[in-house]
Amino acid sequence: MYSNPPQINSNSEVPVKVNTSPFRRGSHKPVYAKYPGLTSGPTSQQQILGMQDPVNGFENLLDVNKPRNFVPVASTNENEISYCSHELPPPDVPFYSPVSYEVYGTFPYKPVNYHWFYRKETQIWKPFSYIDSKALEAAFCFSSNKLVSVDGGRQDVDLEQRIRKPVYWEDTDVTHVQRCSWFYKGPMDSQFIPYSEEFSARLEAEYEQSIRTNSWHKRLEFAGGEAVVLQNPNSFLHFCQEASADEWGSVPEHQLRPRVVKRGTDGLHILPGEPTEVDYLVFLVHGIGSVCDFKFRSVVETVDDFRQISDQLLQSHFKDTAGRVEFLPVQWHNALHGDGGIDEKLKPLTLKSIPKLRHFTNDTLLDILFYTSPIYCQTIMNTVGKEMNRMYALFLERNPTFNCLSVAVGGHSLGSLILFDLLLHQPEIVPIVTTNSTHESDAGDTQVNFMKESNSTSESGNRMVSYTIGSAGTGQPFISYPALDFQPNAFFAMGSPIGSTEFI
Predict the structure, then answer these.
(1) Rounded CA gap, 392 and 330, in Å?
(2) Which of 32, 314, 332, 344 has a beta carbon 3.0–4.6 Å from 383's, enabling a disulfide?
(3) CA distance between the termini of the chain
(4) What is the distance between the alpha carbons of residues 38 and 25, in angstroms, rounded to a whole number?
(5) Which of helix, strand or coil describes residue 35?
(6) Which residue blocks in 114-181 are alpha helix, DSSP H?
(7) CA distances to 181, 228, 375 from 205, in Å
């Protein structure tokens, strides 16, 4: 802004860096002092040095022979004078300058706050919630148990292998876990990306050394011709390897610009986390096909969105009355189409023309016909009942204080019809009240158990199918429906064909 800005006395122990930016930059909030009679800022260095104090009328505003431990900062208000210093400036030494300075004195070193992130093979790094990250950090630093439950108990993290594994379902994609502290964002990136733990450890060590020795503008060389420059305690740049020119000899502009480096997680969007106690449990059964929306996502991913939307509605409409609702996905498609399933039998029957359309038809629309088949309908029913009972038992094991009466089921499309038939054919539940008491005078502990009729089904490939003959002489297949280990108190049908099937 000014070619020859005023200089501070060289005897001062505080090194000063000239910054022509109009913004105040410093680690301390500026202190404002009224300057009477000042209506406009000086326009040159000569006017600054020659300006007289309007109060005393004899002392120059900038006395270069007087050591100072503070520096002037350009004010946003022309009637105010800004000081940015480690100490308050003397009240009898007002001065104004359009040049901004930064003080690099003794900058205290504060250890970085680590945060844990996770990423699948084809996705970007995402942060754990604050609750989960604190639990992971505590187990990493102080606990011998390196298996930590995260995401409300739906996932487990193995800190030794640095992977995250689902609890209630199978996942073929490996989810990696990392302890992060330093991040970068390139010209084409939309968010900050964490460095590896080894890379971050070296940056943190060099940063601490620079803080303690007050030495900056340090260039750190890394493999591949990359370098990170520590300009000051709040500014870092990452220069990538030399950009390669294209076939026309030009280099893209984004390859020439350095990356912005960030220390810590300040400013990143991180969710607070989920409470550990669950008030309500809902099982969700998917419909036809292996994908559940136009984004070709699985039932696990769509249920995650369903859970987030439910949490937002609870916080906005029922914040003081409702607790946490857990949604667990129930998958049956892989049992029907997986290894050794119906897909192997359909391959010789599928024509070679328009393969994508025929694959889509075999994977989705044929599920409706399979459900009308007694053999494949039995496979679907056994899978849904077995999965819900398995997940329910595992959920009670991990949540021993859960109220067993707060369970619901929900289905979408064909999944709602599966649940409708399954609930309609549940055996009668007979409550048995038992009282345990050591003395006749004691009230004792009352327990309520349920007796259910269990239907045994054959697991062999060849099955005998029986039919129920109606009055008109026609018959429909008889399906053996598995008994559930819980009694749901609500059933939600979304996009359901129940009405049309009952009408037919």
Answers:
(1) 11
(2) 332
(3) 83
(4) 24
(5) coil
(6) 130-142
(7) 12, 13, 65
pLDDT in tens, 433-447: 444 444 443 434 433
CA distance 470 to 360: 36
Contacts of the segment 419-423: beta carbons below 8 A, 24+ positions apart? 419/285, 419/384, 419/491, 419/493, 420/491, 420/493, 420/496, 420/498, 421/381, 421/479, 421/481, 422/381, 422/384, 422/385, 422/481, 422/482, 422/484, 423/488, 423/491
CA distance linking residue 135 with residue 132, whole number of Å: 5
- Contact in structure between 139 and 148 (CB atoms under 8 Å): yes
Locate 495 and state its tokens. 């996009």
How many angstroms separate the CA atoms of 325 and 279, rounded?
A: 6
Q: Which residue has the tokens 């220069």?
A: 239
* Strand partners for 80: 34
Q: For residue 166, what are the contacts with CB-CB under 8 A and spacing of at least 6?
A: 154, 155, 156, 300
- Tell me, yes or no, if the pTM score tops 0.85: no
Structure tokens at 176: 């990696």
Alpha carbons 1 and 305: distance in angstroms, whole number: 52
Residue bearing tokens 């404002």:
32
* pLDDT tens readout for residues 20-53: 444 444 444 444 443 344 344 433 333 433 444 4
Tokens for 260?
A: 């912005």
DSSP state of 52: B
Is the C-alpha dihedral spanning 315, 317, 320, 324 positive or negative?
A: negative
* Residue closest to 363 by CA, chosen among 478, 462, 477, 286: 286
**Reduced DSSP (H G I as helix, E B as strand, rest coil) percent helix, strand, coil of the chain, to 5:** 25, 25, 50
Q: Which of 81-95, 159-173, 363-377, 417-431 has the lowest mean pLDDT?
A: 81-95
| Rounded Cα gap, residues 116 and 130, in angstroms | 9
Dihedral over alpha carbons 141, 145, 151, 157 (to 10 degrees): 90
Name the nearest CA neighbour of 421 among 472, 367, 496. 496
Token duo for residue 400? 């021993």
DSSP summary character for residue 200: H
